[in-house]
Design brief:
With 659 residues, the protein is an alpha/beta fold. The protein is built from 20 helices and 15 strands. The N terminus is likely disordered.
């Protein structure tokens, strides 16, 4: 094990195990300074904690000296008064030391929890500022790992690792100093077994790490499977396809691997501690052997050798811990590095320092030569991180790996089953090209086009979920890049195809639109959305919990709650992606009536799924392959006999023919 010389401008720590696997962690001074900067507000608590460490260490060194005095002087001289005093000291020392340790632990936890609180809030705040592109290209599990596992790892570094290293260093130095002052020959003899500590730590410690890593990998696969099959959608799929016994058997296999690794880990761990105990016993035996000879020769007293044995016990534990300290410290610092990586990610959607707050607006929307592509700048995303034992390393949970995926691709890079390029996708990188149009206040504009034409992408640009690659978007003459984000959100309401509801009450989900809304305003919004009567028919009314993602409600019910939420927000500009194509006729009629209510007096941009929206539109924009290829009213576009006419014949005439 080496700690030092890790390259230009940094430290390196290496541990080479029995299988010659090398773990390298680089820690730079800027990283350490940044970590220390988070501890700066707690500097006085840290000072007091160091003082308490020194006091408790000093108190711990007194007990062997008292025992030596007891054996060498008090008992031979039959000094009862001195005996009583020493007995009282032997009780007071652990009492005072225990009290100091409680205070030290409180200060330690205050500092550790405080630093981690600051770090976690900084991380979450920064993630809230990231663009939608970041979230569409980042695994949720990875973000959860940064917020939980890595932050907890950083907390371990602050609360445990650093404190333990400092305590062990102080203990070793102080104990060695006292031992050398008492008898330097026995001290050298006692420390002579240190190479054996290092050897055992290198060999069995490496084996323990390998077993633990393998167990965590198996545990990750087991947990990932549980995550996939025990959520609502996974459980439903298992039941519908009758795969319960298959999944139970698959779980048995993965749980068995975890069990077997756990047994092996326990056995090797027991061997490790037995051998470490034997090495400690060897050191103690050597001291007693050599010390016994010196006592017989009259070099020093019986009490000295007993005190030495006690000091050896205090010395070997910290020495053993310090052999692993560099790697433990370096690995703890990696958690800080991973958290800082997120905090340092540049913001794609950034608010200018002189941004304008939109107050009252009329609702004019202008797209001026807008281009947009989905190409991702790697500097805006997280790096791939290999974490042993984390669920986010598992690529394909049910199959176990991605080995079967290449079988579907031929030598020419095509999917053999569909004869399409293996990377074929409707989601083109270049989603919008030279899109220009103007929507006047109060107008209803319908977006029409085939799937993948760029309609949803266009609507995402209006609330600035993305920024255009080229061109600009204006609201009442203000470029969106010059507007405060919160004020922009205040004036724009969206109802998307997939309605998301929190696992909470209906009331809480509605109040998310406006936290200060009264019960009367909430009910008025629900009446306008044709959902109030349904809610009142529930056993708990507005206090009914909707379940995970609103799963306890039907699609039409969730959609009407989403519309009520937008009505409660009362935005000036409304963006609708009407999700009525898969609903029953009654739900669809209720939603269409609610939409007509919410559109009144507002600028509305709607992705049209129904003929009624198209016929009511003041302007229809026909999109294809990211461009606006036609525009006009329904009659004007039919007269052109272009793409709109084709779409009308294939998608909307059937609806018109229905009674």
């Amino acid at each position: 094990m080496l700690f030092g010389g890790g390259g230009r401008g940094g430290w390196g720590s290496y541990w080479r195990g029995a299988d010659e696997e090398e773990l390298q962690v680089n820690m730079t001074w800027p990283l350490l300074r940044r970590v220390l900067a988070y501890a700066q507000p707690y500097r006085w608590q840290i000072v007091w904690m160091l003082v308490l460490i020194l006091l408790t260490t000093g108190l711990g060194l007194l007990t062997p000296l008292i025992i030596r005095d007891l054996i060498d002087y008090t008992l031979p001289e039959a000094d009862v008064e001195r005996l009583n005093g020493l007995a009282v000291l032997l009780v007071l020392i652990p009492v005072v030391s225990g009290g100091l340790r409680v205070v030290q632990r409180k200060i330690n936890s205050t500092v550790g929890e405080g630093v981690i609180y600051d770090l976690r809030v900084s991380l979450y705040t920064h993630l809230q500022k990231m663009s939608l592109r970041f979230f569409t290209n980042t695994k949720t599990g990875e973000l959860m790992s940064r917020l939980n596992n890595d932050v907890v790892g950083a907390q371990t570094a602050i609360s445990n690792t650093v404190v333990e290293i400092i305590t062990n260093v102080v203990t070793v130095v102080a104990t060695l100093a006292v031992m050398l002052a008492m008898e330097w020959r026995l001290t050298i003899l006692g420390v002579a077994v240190l190479p054996l500590f290092i050897f055992i730590a290198r060999r069995l410690g490496s084996r323990l790490r390998d077993i633990a890593r393998e167990q965590m990998d198996h545990n990750a696969r087991m947990n990932a499977m549980m995550n996939e099959t025990l959520n609502i959608s996974g459980a439903l799929l298992v039941k519908l396809f009758g795969r319960r016994s298959n999944e139970v058997e698959r779980f048995r296999e993965r749980a068995a691997l975890v069990r077997d690794n756990g047994v092996e880990r326990a056995v090797v761990g027991s061997q490790f501690f037995v051998l470490v105990g034997l090495v400690g016993a060897m050191g103690t035996a050597l001291v007693f052997w050599m010390g016994g000879h010196l006592v017989i020769q009259g070099v020093f007293t019986d009490g000295t050798i007993v005190a030495f044995a006690a000091y050896l016990t205090q010395l070997y534990g910290p020495l053993q811990a310090l052999t692993n300290a560099p790697v433990a410290f370096a690995q703890s610092m990696v958690s800080f590095e991973r958290v800082f990586e997120v905090i340092d990610l540049p913001l794609e959607i950034e608010e200018k320092s002189d941004a304008v707050a939109l107050k009252e607006i009329h609702g004019q929307v202008v797209f001026d030569a807008v281009d947009f592509n989905y190409q991702v700048d790697p500097s805006l995303l997280l790096k791939d991180v290999v974490r042993h034992g984390r669920m986010d390393n598992v690529g394909a949970v049910l199959s176990g790996d991605d080995a079967r995926r290449p079988e579907r691709e031929g030598a020419n890079g095509k999917d053999e089953r569909s004869n399409r390029p293996s990377n074929y996708s409707q989601a083109r990188d270049q989603a919008l090209t030279d899109v220009s149009f103007t929507i006047e206040p109060g107008q209803l504009v319908a977006l029409v086009g085939p799937s993948g034409a760029g309609k949803t992408t266009l609507t995402y640009l209006i609330p600035r979920l993305y920024d255009p690659t080229e061109g600009r978007i204006l609201i009442d003459g203000y470029d969106l890049r010059d507007v405060m984000l919160d004020s922009l959100a205040d004036h724009i309401g969206m109802v998307t195809q997939e309605t998301y509801l929190f696992h909470d009450t209906i009331r809480t989900n509605l109040l998310y639109a406006r936290l200060d809304a009264t019960d009367a305003e909430v009910e008025a919004a629900c009446r306008a959305a044709n959902i109030h009567d349904f809610i009142m028919g529930l056993s708990n009314g507005y206090d009914t919990v909707v379940g995970e993602r609103g799963y306890r409600l039907s699609g039409g019910e969730k959609q009407r709650i989403a519309i009520a939420r937008v009505i409660l927000k009362d935005p000036r500009i409304l963006v609708l992606d009407e999700a009525t194509s898969h609903l029953d006729s009654q739900s669809e009629a209720l939603i269409q009536e609610a939409l007509r209510t919410v559109q009144q007096g507002r600028t509305t941009i709607a992705i049209a799924h129904r003929l009624s929206t198209i016929l009511a539109a003041d302007l229809i924009l026909v999109m294809d392959r990211g461009q606006v290829v036609e525009r006009g009213t329904h009659d004007e576009l039919l007269a052109l006999d272009g793409l709109y006419a084709q779409l009308y014949q294939t998608q909307f005439t059937r609806e018109q023919a229905l009674p």
